[in-house]
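Working notes for the structural subgroup meeting. M.R. asked for a predicted model of this chain before we commit to crystallization trials. I am recording the input and output together here so anyone reviewing the notebook later can reproduce the run.

Input as submitted:
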Amino acid sequence: MSQNLSSEELDVDHDAEFPNVIEALHTRRSGHNFDPEAELDEETLEELIRDAAIAPSSYNLQPWEFVSVQDEERLDEIVEIAYGQEHIRDAGTAILVVGHTNAKTADSVFDEWVEAGRLDEETAAETKAQTVGMYDDERMGRDYAIRNASLAAENLMLSAHARELTATPMIGFDQERITEFLDLPDDVIPVMLLAVGPSGGEEPERLPRRSVDEILHKESY
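Returned structure, recorded in token form:
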């Protein structure tokens, strides 16, 4: 088996027109060391969400929303729902990324496609009908929600890293309880829970990642 690559061995500069982006990808960490005395201000929270919202999505439907929790008592409840992950409390902010299981934004989004001259009205109507139809399949709707909202979650984590914050993704939580606790509507599902806040200092060395030779398959698996 090929040797795993350490963070020091990753090539940041190879053919990179935007090397800072590559560096950010390589240096972002899912840390657990937060400063419990520092807070995430409202302006920064909104900037994180703004950056998350420019993630790519199927037909630009942007089928995601975000629920932030900063109240201390409510964070205690989130910790319990997340099976005792105490770093959520230390972070001071929990953000649940949720995904739409239906194409609830389709009308406005396909109108924008037409207004921008990307599609004519007939093509837009046909494409919208096809897209809405795919969401009508329960499994497909859930898959769309998870795939698209996960892209937004990654954007949020990179935005946090760029602002010298720590952001840690979690899928270890009771989905039914968090749905009830945060009063989620029936047509959205919880996708990912993020603990976000000012860093409390250094994190342990990153564990090795599997090598390219091990994970890249060419032409077929």
